[in-house]
Amino acid sequence: MKSLVLVLTGVLLLSVGCSKDRSFDERELHLISPEKIAGFDPIQISDMYSGNEAGKVYEGLFEFHPYKRPYELIPNLAAALPVVSADGLVYTFTLKKGVKFHDSPAFPDGKGKEFKSDDVIYSIKRLGDPKLQAKGWWLFDDKIAGLNEWRDKNSALEASNYAEEIEGLKKIDDYTVAIKLKRPYPQFLYALAMPQLFIVAKEAVDHFGKEFLNHPVGTGPFVLPVFEQTNRIVYTKNPTFREKFFPSEGEEGDDKLGLLADAGKKIPLVDKIIVDIIVESQPKWLGFQKAKADLLEIPKDNFDSAVVGGKELAPDLKAKGIRLFANAMLDVTFFAFNHDDPTFKANKKLRQAMSLAWDRAEANKLFYNSSAIEAQSVIPPGLGGYRKEFKNPYVKFDLEQAKKLLAEAGYPKGKGLPTITVQTRNETVARQIIEHFAKCQERIGIKVKVGMNTWPELINKVTKRQHQLYTMAWGADYPDAENFLGLLYCPNSSPGSNGSNYCNPDFDALFKTATVLQDSPERSSMYEKMNEMVAIENPWIFGFHRTKFYLSHAWLKNFKFMEFNHTQFQYLNVDLEVKKELSKKF
Amino acid sequence: MKQNSLWKDAFFRLAKDKLALFSLVIVLIYFLVALLSSMGLLASTWSQEVGASNLPPSLEHLFGTDIFGRSVLQKVIRGTQVAMSVGVAASIIAIPIGVLLGAFAGYFGGWIDDFVTWLYTTFSSVPNIMLLISITLILGKGIFAVYIALGATSWVTLCRLIRGEVMKHKEREYVQAAGAIGGGHMRKLFRHILPNVSHIIIINTSMQFQIAIKSEVILSYLGLGVQGEPSWGTMIDDAKLELVRGVWWQLAGATVAMFFILLAFNILSDALRDALDPKLKGK
Question: How confident is the model at residue B60 (pLDDT cuts 50, 70, 90)?
């Protein structure tokens, strides 16, 4: 009996040793999502991870050029850039012809219908539907003529009336739409490139009802008939995808890097995308090492084994053909106070004291390998409104001043202040960041506790204002500082993007004036003023602007770091020859 | 020949088993450490920095330091407090529920028995860890939720055992005799039957205690356990990232601490069963 067991074990081990789950016949792209996906309903997307997944199935009217820098907006479902009226209020869009939605039981005969101007109007109305409480509503709130009125009117009705026409959303013919704005909105086209404005089909929304968020039916390059909350999402190439071609232009030097080798080819270039949802760092790292993922953001604890001297790729990785990408991000990390909570709202000094007590240099070293830049306020470097010389007097490590301010705030040595819970993601590093923060706060007598949540739970808590303090990072949606300043704009309060529910009339007034201006030195200086005004108010404890480090395997082609990357995947390619050759080394 | 009482007899038998006695001492030491720590006499400064980040074990820092330069030894001690308190709290919740439900079900039978049997089969049909996770999700995270969650899941075995024993005992002569001299149900149950099955409670508790400790570690590892306090589980969670850099001492500290208490409890509960179970007498 024992020998039989031994033989069986042997066979088992052997078969494990021989089986390779790598296929070399199909072009498969293996990616990792570090967070669970909160569903595929575009209007409810509020985080980049869900946006990245939705971007594989859905499309917007515009997208960012995958290679040109600075970022350039190019038409996606639109046929060209819009014609704008002289007063800058009416945008006329022509749409691409012959674009088909995915085949789905939602349509008659299961064949995807053609994309037309009605779908654009429907998708925008849906974002404003008061019954749906879209998380992306802040993008169009008070922007389009008649949309807010329609929203208000319908909130009293049983079901929203989509048949009613709205002044600002006019169908000219099946392939032409005119959108009228209330006032100039320079970020308008950027918004049309965002996941929240991805185009959906009314038939699919009606057919799937509440289950729509799990049944994405878009026009995009990949299809996913059903989304299940599992740890793996498999997208297949959309057989009815229109003729879309790989760009032939990029930033200078891109062709030398071989990024444009696929120019003129029909995209998408891969047959399948397999996304593994892996929250924890070590499995990600090991998966990449075993070539189970083509691309990886380097986890902090593996930084030293991947990058030598903070710059060079480690020799053992280089030998396997792995490449390193280091990119400063347009982002900011922060601890946001909930200004609904009277403890923080009326107490600026308390907020400032907590900011002063946090040892950022140490946090930078522990969590970002000292590669991040300390944030003085909300706007990251690289956007108009960031001034290098500006130093926030409360972004430094000064325990004495922190103690003094805490006493002035009415809590000498933290007496009388209840334990503060900081909500974060349920992940080891996220927890350690709060533990470090708590350790720093304890030095001035403030007790801080960690609250751990899954990503959807955390978003839910913030949206429902059930938090004292939460920590998160905000990545730019488009290259305009308005996107960051909007995080502290009062009308954007939860469920909008202002999770701190901070309100400052002076700031709001400036925001209203500045954000309707086109990009200009005047606007930049107004942004600077707002950025610095809000900095000393400390509605947040400002964290860092991070640098992201990516590793890619040699067979992954066409990857270039992209901030607004939800449409990037269709341009990526896999070199099967190289993969076959190199996979012997793994 | 003089006849000893069950308890005295059991004690002598336990005392003869050197290994069991040694285990008992270890368990008592853990209790003492936990008690001192909860009174603030030990490891009260666990959250303070004692040196640089991730220092390996040395004479100065016996178990090394963690990512924030805190003493791993102190964290282990503090973790002991958390683990032992979870064991105690879970027992305090589970014993009354298990004993009462089991005793009533076994003694009265009928619909009470049906109900209790239904209740514990329902509870035990749900995988334990799932039940724990859902309870902590409902109650919010934190040590209190862990107490309740473990208490609410660990009464099942005890309840089943007590029910079976009470069923057996209620037909015995001494219970009939108690009834014959006018003892009521409650008197028969609590004065006569329960003392005769109480050894089960002790044996079972010593087994459940270590299950509670293990569950606490698992929950904390998953981020569902104690928050903002060191726990062996969170230490192991930290370690899974640090191991690649060769930082092994957090894992070692937590596992060694866990290993000894679990081993001691295992040996002890075995020995207790040998000593207390009348069926094993003379073996």
Answer: confident
Q: Which residue has the tokens 């003094």?
A: A404
Considering CB atoms only, which of A280, A436, A452 is closest to B227? A452
Specify the pairing of strand A272-277 against strand A222-223.
unpaired
Closest residue to B223, CB basis, from A285, A426, A439: A426
Contact partners, residue A325, CB within 8 Å, separation at least 6? A548, A549, A550, A551, A552, A559, A561
Q: Could you tell me which of B251, B142, B246, B162 has the C-alpha nearest to residue B204?
A: B162
Best CA proximity match to A187, nearest among A563, A529, A525, A518: A518
**pLDDT, tens only, A336-377:** 999 998 888 888 999 999 999 999 999 998 888 888 999 999
For residue A6, the model assigns a pLDDT of 44
Residues of chain A with CATH 3.90.76.10: 37-218
Count of pairs with CB atoms under 8 A, one residue in A, one in B: 53
Which residue of B228, B238, B244 is in closest CB contact with A450?
B228
Does A428 sit within 8 Å of B237, measured CB to CB? Answer: yes
The DSSP bridge partners found for residue A545 are A373
Residues in chain A within 8 Å Cβ distance of B228: 435, 438, 448-450
Task: Tell me the pairing of strands A540-542 and A573-574.
Answer: unpaired
Asked if A439 lies within 8 A of B141 by C-beta distance, the reply is: no
Any long-range contacts for A373-376 (C-beta under 8 Å, 24+ apart)? Answer: A373/A328, A373/A544, A373/A545, A374/A542, A374/A544, A375/A332, A375/A333, A375/A334, A375/A542, A375/A543, A375/A544, A375/A545, A376/A535, A376/A542
Q: How far apart are CA A191 and CA A62, in angstroms?
A: 9
Asked if the Cβ–Cβ distance from B240 to A282 is below 8 Å, we say yes
SS3 A85: coil
**DSSP secondary structure letter of residue A280:** S
In CATH terms, the superfamily for domain A37-218 is Dipeptide-binding Protein; Domain 1 (3.90.76.10)
Can you tell me the distance from the alpha carbon of B258 to that of A262, in angstroms, rounded to the nearest whole number? 57
Domain A331-545 belongs in CATH node 3.50.80.10: no
CA-angle at A493, arms to A376 and A513, nearest 5°: 70
List the single residue in A301, A366, A452 with the smallest CB-CB distance to B244. Answer: A301
Q: Which residues contact A8 (CB under 8 A, 6 or more apart)?
A: none
**Chain B residues close to A302, C-beta within 8 Å:** 244
A437 neighbourhood in chain B, CB within 8 Å: none
Q: Which of residues 71-130 of B touch A (CB under 8 A)?
A: none
Structure tokens at B41: 């006499």
CATH 3.10.105.10 placement within chain A: 331-545
Q: What is the DSSP letter of A299?
A: P
- Higher model confidence: residue B274 or residue A119? A119
Is pLDDT of A1 > 50?
no
A209 CB contacts (<8 Å, ≥6 apart)? none
The minimal CB distance from A281 to the residues B67, B234, B241 is found for B241
Nearest by Cα to A401 from A437, A439, A356 = A356
d(CA A165, CA A162): 8
Mutate to test the interface with A, among B46, B141, B144, B251 (most CBs of A within 10 A): B141
Interface pTM (ipTM) of the complex? 0.74
pLDDT tens by residue, A218-276: 999 999 999 988 899 999 999 999 999 999 999 888 989 889 999 999 999 999 999 99
- Which range (A314-328, A433-447, A568-582, B227-241) has the least confidence? B227-241
- Give Cα A270 to chain centroid, integer Å: 23
Average pLDDT on B70-83 reads 92
Q: What is the rounded distance in angstroms from the CA atom of residue A172 to the CA atom of residue A192? A: 19
pTM: 0.76
Q: Cβ contact (<8 Å) for B245 and A304?
A: yes
